[in-house]
């Protein structure tokens, strides 16, 4: 008996282990067996939850239906079952269900936070066009040498007695700048010699008239000698006039002051030149003949210059040729572009073809948008490359213009004689930065949109088309597009049918819309624009 008991226990243990292993294999290998036990497990789970929550009764009657799927596998009916006319989605506020990942609903407040203007102002209607591909490089507005700045020199030695204008004041050609008390010996001696010749001519004319009244017995030789002396004196007068003109005295001043009035110039007035040539048009006049400046005077002026800098002080002695002041005339400027050494071939090609450049000024006129100045001609290309920046210069002509300023209101100075000059405000100013651009090739039949209208994540690019307004929110549809070219301020999209012509897309904020759609994580969340759902 003792020998048989251990053998019987060994047989029973072996049978028990084999039974458990076989049952596990059948359960996990056969789906039909597993599904038969699933309802019981779910009931047991629901029953446990009922015991844990007092006061909550759950009726599980009718919850389990037998499905007869002949020859078919069982399906998970999440979203495909019969909801008995009820939608299990939460429709309070927004839809939060997953549809196809391309729809997004945003409130008006959210659009404002993104920067999209409400209504049609924030939308762009797509129209196919030809895009001009361009090459661009930075530029800087500079004074045009020999044109923009005029240095006013002292035409004679003297002491500065008056300064009539202030730095920054708008001046018209012919207005007085400074008054100088003459001490220049050559100028004074020329005037004295001219006055002496004029007096001599008067005497000779008187002598000729006296001889004409005498009898004919007077020898003709005396009359011929008098006529010859008058001609010689006239030649000397003309030479002295030319000497005064060479010293900077205007012809009008010589005729009016010296010839007619026979007065010596002791004080001269240096005026704004009539042209950009500083040696012409400087009038020497007696200080008492200065014209008054009033509102009527300013209203007749079509062009103003500006006093940039005064280089002398009142009471200072100025020698011949010393700089007195600097006047600017900004009607003509230069744009100095700086292109890299590797872009020299493109610039030279544009120069040789006579291609027109465009200057792009950011935030033009302070309106928040760029101002583009087209049809600019390149003037020259530098043959020197900067060793530090590895760039070379090219120069483009820029025609300037004055911005509108408030009209004169007739205000006068304390003396009641000098009106307030208008504000001189040029559109383009030296030191202003811009971007020079020249066209290189054309891309036909494409959509050109602002850079902020396209969201790009890796290799994917998308725009957001406006769909409709529903429930106080605007619904947007994400449209994937193909980017052909990306410039600094615009993006060129292929017209390949991914988005139709005439579609209205958001002008800006595409990146923020993309982040809102992907919920910042990558799993697309959508708000469906339709009313009924089939799940």
Notes on the protein architecture:
With 535 residues, the chain is α+β, with helices and mostly antiparallel strands. Helix content is 27%, strand content 28%. It has nine helices and 23 strands. Strands 3, 12, 13, 14, 15, 16, 17, 21 and 22 form a nine-stranded antiparallel β-sheet that branches. Strand 15 (378-385) and strand 16 form a beta hairpin. Helix 4 packs antiparallel against helix 5 (220-246). The protein is rod-shaped and about 180 Å long. It starts with a helix and ends in a 17-residue tail after the last helix. The model is unreliable at 1-10, 37-99, 276-300, 407-418 and 520-535 (pLDDT under 50).
Helix content: 25-40%
Q: With helices defined by DSSP (H or I, 4 residues minimum), what is the helix count?
A: 9
> Strand portion, in percent?
25-35%
Could you give the count of β-strands?
23
Mean pLDDT: 75
Unreliable sequence segments: 1-10, 37-99, 276-300, 407-418, 520-535
Instruction: Find the structural class using helix and strand composition.
Output: alpha+beta
Q: How far apart lie the N and C ends?
A: 71 Å
Radius of gyration: 47 Å
For the sheet with most strands, the description reads: 9 strands, antiparallel
Q: What would the principal axes of the Cα set say about the shape?
A: rod-shaped
């Amino acid at each position: 008996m003792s020998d048989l008991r251990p053998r019987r226990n060994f047989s029973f243990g072996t049978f028990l282990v084999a039974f458990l292993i076989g049952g596990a294999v059948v359960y996990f290998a056969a789906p039909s067996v597993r599904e038969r036990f699933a309802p019981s497990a779910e009931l047991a789970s629901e029953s446990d939850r009922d015991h844990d929550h007092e006061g909550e009764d759950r009726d599980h009657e009718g919850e389990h239906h037998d499905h007869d799927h002949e020859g078919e596998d069982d399906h998970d009916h999440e979203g495909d079952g019969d909801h008995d006319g009820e939608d299990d989605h939460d429709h309070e506020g927004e839809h939060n269900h997953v549809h196809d990942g391309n729809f997004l609903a945003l409130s008006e407040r959210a659009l404002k936070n993104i920067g999209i203007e409400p209504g049609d102002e924030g939308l762009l209607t797509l129209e196919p066009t030809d895009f001009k591909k361009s090459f661009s490089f930075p530029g800087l507005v500079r004074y045009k040498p020999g044109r923009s700045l005029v240095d006013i020199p002292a035409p004679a030695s003297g002491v500065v007695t008056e300064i009539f204008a202030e730095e920054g004041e708008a001046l018209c050609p012919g207005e007085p700048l400074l008054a100088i008390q003459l001490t220049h010996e050559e100028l004074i001696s020329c005037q004295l010699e001219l006055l002496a010749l004029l007096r001599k001519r008067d005497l000779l004319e008187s002598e000729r008239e006296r001889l004409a009244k005498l009898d004919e017995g007077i020898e003709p030789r005396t009359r011929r000698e008098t006529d010859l002396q008058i001609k010689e004196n006239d030649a000397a007068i003309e030479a002295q006039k030319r000497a005064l003109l060479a010293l900077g005295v205007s012809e009008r001043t010589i005729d009016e002051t010296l010839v007619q009035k026979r007065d010596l110039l002791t004080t001269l007035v240096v005026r704004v030149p009539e042209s950009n040539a500083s040696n012409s048009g400087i009038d020497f006049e007696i200080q008492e003949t200065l014209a008054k400046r009033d509102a009527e005077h300013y209203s007749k002026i079509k062009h103003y210059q500006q006093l940039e800098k005064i280089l002398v002080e009142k009471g200072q002695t100025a020698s011949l040729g010393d700089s007195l002041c600097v006047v600017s005339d900004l009607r003509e400027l230069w744009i100095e572009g700086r292109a890299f050494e590797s872009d020299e071939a493109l610039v030279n090609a544009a120069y040789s073809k006579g291609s027109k450049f465009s200057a792009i000024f950011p935030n033009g006129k302070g309106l928040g948008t760029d101002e583009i100045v087209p049809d600019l001609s390149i003037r020259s290309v530098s043959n020197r490359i900067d060793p530090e920046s590895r760039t070379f210069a090219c120069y483009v002509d820029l025609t300037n213009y004055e911005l509108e300023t408030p009209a004169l209101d007739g205000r006068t100075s304390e003396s009641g004689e000098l009106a307030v000059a208008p504000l001189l405000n040029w559109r383009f100013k030296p030191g202003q930065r811009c971007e020079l651009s020249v066209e290189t090739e054309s891309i036909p039949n494409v959509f050109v949109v602002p850079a902020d209208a396209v969201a790009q994540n890796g290799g994917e690019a998308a725009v957001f088309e406006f769909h409709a307004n529903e429930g106080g929110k605007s619904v947007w549809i994400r449209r994937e597009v193909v980017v052909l070219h990306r410039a600094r301020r615009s993006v060129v999209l292929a017209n390949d049918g991914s988005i139709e012509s005439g579609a209205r897309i958001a002008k800006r904020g595409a990146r923020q819309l993309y982040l809102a759609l992907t919920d910042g994580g990558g799993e697309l969340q959508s708000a469906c624009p339709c009313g009924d759902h089939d799940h």
